[in-house]
Amino acid sequence: MLNDSIKVKGALSISKNGVVVQEVHNLVVDAGKTLIAARLSGSGSVIGYMAVGSGSAAAAVGNTTLSAEMDRNALTVSGGTASGPTVTYATTWSAGDGTGAIQEAGLFTASSGGTMLARTVFPVVNKGAADVITITWEVTIL
Question: In which residue ranges of the chain is pLDDT below 50?
Answer without folding.
Answer: none
